[in-house]
Amino acid sequence: MVSGPAWLRLRFDFTADEPLLIPGFSGSAWRGLLGHALKRSACVTGAAHCKGCLLASSCAYPVLFEPTPRTAPDAWHARRYQHLPPPMVLGIDPTWNGALPPRPAPARHLSTGDSFRLDIALIGPACERVPHLIHALIIAGELGIGRDHGRFRLAEVAMETEPGNQTWQTIYRPGAPLQQVQLVSPQPPPMQSDALEISLTTPTRLKRHGHLLGPEDLDAETLLLTLANRLGLLAEHYGGDPADFAWSRLAPATQTLTLEYSELAWQDWSRYSSRQRSRMQLGGLVGALRLSGPGLTELWPLLWLGQFVHIGKNTSFGLGAYRLTMA
Q1: Cβ neighbours of residue 125 under 8 Å, at least 6 residues apart?
Q2: How far is it, in rounded angstroms, from Cα 133 to Cα 37?
Q3: SS3 for 262?
Q4: 7-172 sits in which CATH class?
Q5: pLDDT, tens only, 297-318
């Protein structure tokens, strides 16, 4: 059993009020729109930045988009944790459809009345911000998404009853009260195979010694080390026991793994950052790899949990998504 933060997976269903064009890489559009709508609805000071704001610890916007350590860190921790991982992960549509080399993700053209959805995972204290998130997405629909700012409306919000079971329970419809949500500390099901296929379904940005890894560079140790560091950091700051994800405990198991095959490619993606006033390149790895070996039993909780919080850089945009298949 591992001890990680409680989390909540939400599914937001929308209806298009007019024709919409949703970009193929929708994570940037969703994150930008949601951030704009949340700041509009939650910020009462009108300040341009959250740093130094007296209300930052109680405001929904910095909790979800610009989290800071809850306690004053020493100098070493201040350097390490000056940018905490956001406690929110977007579940966007996969950008990799199984073909290599990967093709650009196509934009979605929706007609008036068409339905579409967005999944969002909230981690730790962010789970308390469900009403703020719902209200922000209602405002987001009025602002519109995509290049033409096509408007939409929120139709329904559902929560997954247990992480990974794909059973969704409605908790909100417009005009009705919000139902109480149940938080759980997710626990993985039993491992039932001695081999796993890992499919990277959105661009995955992994680094070694400060450099992004290409298709020929990825190995099992780097993949699992990155995942252990992310889950340990989430546990340290949002609830749970970081020791469960300590690399010193998990590293020996990785030495027993075999990377049977790796069919990966680089999928380019760029986004315009209004804050930095420049276009940013955020491509990453997509494709599949297969791991086998006796160490999988010990590493299975790590891999299973990682499906819901993603891996690598820019997970708040929906990057670093993967799914597991027992081989």
Answers
A1: 63, 87, 238, 239
A2: 9
A3: strand
A4: alpha beta
A5: 999 999 999 999 999 998 989 9
Which residue, 266, 269, 254, 255, is CA-closest to 216? Answer: 266
Domain 195-326 has CATH 3.40.50.2300: no
Within the chain, all domains assigned CATH 3.30.70.1890 are found at 7-172
Which tokens sit at 304? 């299973």
User: CB neighbours (10 Å) of residue 119?
Assistant: 17
pLDDT digits (tens, 9 = 90+) for 248-283: 999 999 999 998 888 999 998 776 555 555 566 778
CA distances from 157 to 166, 172, 179, 220 (A): 14, 5, 10, 37
Tokens of 220: 């099992």
Query: Are the C-beta atoms of residues 61 and 68 closer than 8 Å to each other?
Result: no
Give the Cβ contact number of residue 187 at 10 Å. 15
Query: Over pLDDT 90: what percentage of the chain?
Result: 61
pTM attached to this predicted model: 0.91
Beta bridge partners of 195: 292
For residue range 53-70, what is the model confidence (pLDDT) as tens digits?
Answer: 888 888 999 999 988 775
Amino acid at 320: G
Is the Cβ–Cβ distance between 31 and 90 less than 8 Å? yes
Q: CA-CA distance, 213 to 309, in Å (whole number)?
A: 20
98-118 pLDDT per residue, tens: 888 888 788 899 999 999 999
Round to whole Å and give the CA distance between 117 and 14: 6
